[in-house]
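Lab meeting prep.
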Amino acid sequence: VGPYVLVTPNETRRKQLQQIAKKELDDLERWKKEHKPGPITLVPQRLGGNESEAQVRQNQQMILMQSKYQKKHKREEYVKAKKAAEEAEILKKKAIQREKAERLEVKKRQEEMQRREMLLEDQKYKTNELLNRLDVGLPKSDSCQIANPGPESTAWKRSRAYKQALGEEENRRLEEMKQEQRRKAELMEFKQKQEDETRTRALKNEQRRVNNAFLDRLQSKTQPDIYHPGYTG
């Protein structure tokens, strides 16, 4: 630590500063007393509304009960809407599964139809092959110039008639199967159209019900609770 000089305080200067500060504080107190606000004088008047305290309390109690009922009503509507949405989702999934099952059934029927057609074609081919082998040993129609046909020509005619009848029967059965498949396809398409219309109608009804419930909730907010026991209209 270096050398320092001790300065003796000036008592006269300190007293002057203290006097100036005391004078400013006194002036401030005097100013506050002079500018102190006087008493407030108001004209007596009636405050509050036209209802009594008991009636106000009763109205508050009624509003509280109505709010509780509205909350309960909103909660019930929410549960109903949630349940309806779940049921609609379940119906939608069931409809999708039903459509898949119907498409699978149509596919199985088509495959069965194709299998039957292939079986008929194979049977027809084998029958024609057998009849052709029988025709090899029989005389042709243009080579038979005898007056009295023999047993060979009679057998040949019978084989030709049987072959023609068998072919007509196979064609008839094939045509019937095609018509049956066509009728089933038309019936399936008609049924699918009806299910689509039913599903669309159900969705529209559900949307209308949800909209009506929403409008009812809005109306219940703007009108008093008519189900409250103390409601007088």
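Slide two material, second protein:
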Amino acid sequence: AFSVVSKLLSQRKLDLLDELVSAEVLRALKEKLSLLPDNHRDALAADVDAIMYTTEGDVRIYYDDDGRKFVSILMRFWYLNGANLPDEVPGETKVFQIVFGDESTKEKRHLLTANYEFQREFTEGAKPDWTITRIEHPRLLE
């Protein structure tokens, strides 16, 4: 899901995210993406093979005022991306660079992070669909 959503964000195909991402998050993303430089937008895309590490940041089970049961999982992703980013991105956060190949054919990649929160209702009879309720690409999507 992370790879698919990040690529669609990079391509500004927000209409294809209606079933995957909450309406509130989509509204916020629409505004942010319109202001994003092309190289930062390109850096949002994470190929499945370029995901280096994932970990859960927070897992919560909670009930709303109507007694419906929800599960929320915050996932953190580290991925390689070849977008043309400066060595320092705004906010003075260091972007790690990894160089593949020898000096004549070297290819520069940046190790970037993203946080996506997934939520699902577990009340009896609820649809078993996960929805992304938070998307963060630090220093890219701010």
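Talking points for slide two:
Strands lie at 51-63, 69-81, 88-89, 93-94, 96-100, 107-121, 130-136.
The CA atoms of residues 72 and 119 lie 4 Å apart.
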